[in-house]
Design goal:
Ankyrin_rpt-contain_sf; SH3 domain-containing protein; five-stranded antiparallel β-sheet; disordered N terminus; Ankyrin_rpt; ANK repeat; signal
Length: 561
């Protein structure tokens, strides 16, 4: 079987996806002993292999994991046990592909080549495709691409494989990379990292299109020249002549804007406000801003939001026609980026400029409310702080268990699951606020708690505007206040059915009542069916229905995690 996975497994947090077709026992190994191979822990691997003998599929997967770690000393040890020789006889043992993937490992690839493994189209494509990379990842990707080109991979050649007796043709590497660049892509809630990945893929694909993927590729300065452009954009170099010359000579018009978008995004990260505005003016003069605004991949406003840019930056971009409250091609709004990254000052700027926090936004594949993003980011940060905190094992174990299965500590701050009963800024699972943690974690926790209160109290609005009754009603809702009464009728004097706690979720049955004011809060009575009450057994609330005032709820488009 020779097809390469078109949607590469680009994040090692997603490695479990690679082995979903393995047995439950193998999945357990991946979560336990397999982690030592992924992390390149030579001492731990030696302990494991002193007690067990690996062969077949388990050896393949373990060696693939070891190659992805980049620890050459580990693979040298495995070679001394005969693993390399065994691997070369196993169909699914492809360490050179794993060493090329996402966190590309040039030294590991060179070592594997020295042991007789061959560069191939799959490994070249693995090195070329990136997902949310750091700077070092981009440089390593370029280095591994050059290695595979140097070793004779033909990126223009189509390949084939047999499937159930039929010959299946596979497009060439250059065709697949070009198709990827010409297709819409999701930024997974990380605007800058996604822009960095797309730009790097443009540079690699352009390198291949220029016919440079061949013997002698290692001597090319193509990639080094690009990395130098990035370095120049960070300190605020307003002379764009070198960038314009490089892009005009090496990148086709159809992809040039993708690279310009990233270089501008890097400039937005400058901490010097005057320098940042000088760069924006230079981009305006060079028509970069105008070109970017007209394309779906433009993420300048999103990078500004997630990085906490000042009001002057947003005012400048707004004057250039950049909308401050529109979703991008991934469906994410600037307010969502600022919220997920705990950028309180930026959130206030956006709100005062007219951003609507009641709008539903995308975050990865899910529709989200802004308040649910706050709660998820808060739970993720809280769990991370607790797991790192100096607590006893008896204190930490139950909390870590809860975090891993509800708080999303092993997920992302954008999409992790919130702990239902934990109110931002209050004690949680018996731990006082703020928990012990590093300075950044505590700073972000405080900012996220303040953001929750800011949204909850209806302060996200333009100055002097009265926040009206919420018209953005959705099929579900979650209680964002504590000890709220569920009533038998749509008025505050009707019988109390239940006192509900923070985090209770509902299915909305009837939302047709008129708006009214109750205790200075404007809202409407909605009839709901209780879906979940934190820390209560389902038998206590099954089929429970009643009326609640919606000034105390956050509407949700879905109850997906």
């Amino acid at each position: 079987m020779k097809p390469f996975i078109k949607s590469l497994f680009l994040s090692f947090s997603c490695i479990a996806l690679v082995i979903t077709n393995l047995s439950a026992q193998s999945a357990t190994w991946e979560e336990t002993d397999g982690q030592f191979f992924i992390n390149g822990d030579l001492a731990a691997v030696k302990r494991i292999l002193s007690k067990e003998k690996y062969s077949g599929d388990q050896l393949s997967l373990a060696l693939n994991f070891a190659a992805s770690s980049g620890n050459v000393a580990l693979t040298q040890y495995l070679d001394s046990l005969g693993w390399i020789k065994a691997c070369q006889k196993l169909r699914d043992c492809k360490p050179i592909q794993w060493a090329s993937m996402n966190q590309a490992r040039p030294q590991m690839v060179e070592w594997l080549l020295s042991k007789g493994f061959k560069s191939d189209a799959e490994s070249l494509e693995a090195a070329a495709v990136l997902n949310l990379p750091q700077d070092s990842t981009v440089a390593n990707s370029f280095a591994v691409v050059k290695l595979h080109c140097e070793n004779g991979v033909n990126p223009l050649l189509s390949t084939s494989y047999q499937h159930e007796g039929n010959k299946v043709m596979v497009a060439s590497v250059i065709e697949r990379l070009s198709e990827r660049l010409n297709s819409a892509s999701q930024d997974q809630g990380y605007a800058l990292l996604h822009a960095r990945a797309r730009a790097a893929e443009v540079i690699t694909t352009s390198f291949i299109k220029a016919g440079l993927c061949k013997k002698g590729a290692k001597q090319s300065t193509w990639f080094d020249d690009y990395l130098n452009l990035i370095t120049a954009s960070r300190p605020g170099d307003t002379d764009l002549s070198k960038s314009n010359v490089y892009l005009a000579a090496k990148v086709g018009k159809e992809w040039r804007g993708i690279v310009e978008n990233y270089l501008m995004s890097e400039a937005l990260l400058s901490k010097d406000a005057a320098q940042r505005l000088s760069m924006l003016n230079a981009f305006k003069t060079a028509k970069w801003l105008e070109r970017c605004r007209q394309n779906r991949y433009c993420s300048l406003i999103d990078v500004a939001a997630e990085s906490g840019a000042d009001k002057a930056t947003f005012d400048f971009l707004a004057n250039e026609g950049y909308p401050l409250d529109s979703p991008n091609a991934s469906g994410v709004t600037p307010l969502a980026y600022a919220t997920a990254n705990a950028q309180f000052a930026t959130v206030k700027n956006l709100c005062e400029s007219g951003a609507d926090f009641r709008k539903t936004t995308k975050m990865e594949i899910y529709d989200r409310s802004i308040i649910s993003i706050v709660r998820r980011a808060y739970s993720y940060t809280w769990c991370s702080a607790i797991i790192d905190a100096p607590l006893s094992k008896s204190e930490k174990d139950p909390i870590q268990h809860r975090c891993e299965y509800e708080g999303g500590s092993i997920a992302s701050p954008q999409t992790g699951v919130s702990i239902p009963e934990c109110i931002p800024g209050k004690s949680c699972l018996g731990v006082a606020f703020p928990p012990k943690g590093n300075e950044t974690q505590i700073k972000n926790l405080r900012a996220l708690a303040d953001l929750f209160d800011y949204y909850k109290s209806g302060q996200c609005r333009t100055p002097n505007k009265v926040l009206s009754c919420n018209a953005n009603i959705k099929p579900y809702a979650v209680l964002i206040a504590d000890k709220v009464q569920l009533r038998s009728e749509a008025n505050a004097n009707s019988n109390k059915i239940e006192t509900l706690s923070f985090g209770t979720t509902f299915e909305v049955i009837d939302s047709n009542r008129s708006c009214e004011t109750m205790a200075t809060r404007e809202g409407r009575w909605i009839k709901v069916k209780v879906n979940f009450i934190p820390l209560r057994s389902r038998e206590e609330y099954i089929d429970m229905q009643g009326w609640i005032f919606d000034a105390y709820v956050d509407y949700l488009p879905t109850l997906e995690p």
